[in-house]
């Protein structure tokens, strides 16, 4: 299929990816008067925050919440007139260790955490405060999370609390994770608390998927074209510039392109058009996949929302009972539980059929919750994400590719470039808007150019 003749003054900016990064970039560009087309390969926008139907209700495929200090997402929600849809709730967190569930929601809970000696309970409690005092993350970028945590909290705290979580989440990469990644996690979570010390988190009524759909509707009101079921299969390039973006059904002329996918997918698109060294740099950053088993139950497992699993024999790193945060009434009385595991895509669990995943999980749930019976499960769903978690190793800032690619009119902004923060909708929105502002500044709105106003080229 041949592309229509390109016109730099009337062709759209094409954004590849309809997650929050791509949607936020589209919003910023449309507000600046730019013509924009968003291409999303899935049937729904939202990326990893997209949803699925639980009866007549929408639920995220992968668990989501915000911290109270996630200002970028709150600003965008306010701008599109949806602030009334955000709710803030205290949550109950805990830890499964030595066949026991410990509640860890408040400072008093921490003082009762008998898995640690009393002095080490104090060290654990002070860790978040110590993390928040670090202002220059580059001062610890040379360290692994393991070395940094042992230095700050001691070997017992690391062995009991942090090592199982690192191994559970990162598996073969546990000793490769950088201190900066862990530092930012502690600093952010420690700053999302009420005056009594309880953790407070935010959620969007109807779920993150509904926010993505609300943002999509706003974009369409602003003149943005959002095309679902439109995977990008190639780029047309002339003289170091992309002239068009190809999908199975169309070839879309492009004035500029923003790529928001995972870096290996971006490498696939740019491989024919850039140097081997550049593509190798994109592929240098390693990723883990994620598998998430979502259970619909007829009753609750426990009172805990977020249960960290510090048991290497339990196959999931977290048990998140979503309906201890967003009530069961939001899902027709169903109790929703997420079981999450980060793993290589070659892992046996990742390759299992959906029913096999449930069969695999049930005995482990019975061990953690002795009263649990398989009959409690009224339905189950399994979701997989190949590029879920990048490995932010020491000196990660040296690995991150610049937004500008070797192609003059192509920028990239992906979750792997959000640093020192980790991936999440708040920072996806921040980076999407920032890159869009950069592009708009170098490429003014077509309506403002003399050629466009006079109808010429």
The largest sheet is: 7 strands, mixed
Judging by the overall fold, what is the CATH architecture of the largest domain?
3-Layer(bba) Sandwich
CA-based gyration radius: 23 Å
The total of helices stands at 14
The CATH superfamily of the largest domain appears as: FAD/NAD(P)-binding domain
What's the shape?
Answer: globular
Low-confidence stretches: 447-457
Instruction: Indicate the structural class.
Output: alpha/beta
The percent of residues in helical segments reads 25-40%
CATH topology title of the largest domain: FAD/NAD(P)-binding domain
Strand content: 15-25%
Tally of separate domains: 3
User: What oligomeric state is this?
Assistant: single chain
Strand order of the largest sheet: 8-7-16-17-18-15-19
Terminal CA distance reads 24 Å
CATH class of the largest domain: Alpha Beta
Question: How many individual β-strands?
Answer: 20
The chain-level mean pLDDT equals 91
3D structure, described in words:
- By secondary structure, this protein is of the alpha/beta class.
- The protein contains 14 helices and 20 strands.
- A seven-stranded mixed β-sheet has the order 8-7-16-17-18-15-19, with helices on both faces. It has a five-stranded parallel β-sheet with strand order 10-2-1-14-20. It has a three-stranded antiparallel β-sheet with strand order 5-9-6.
- Residues 447-457 have low confidence and may be disordered.
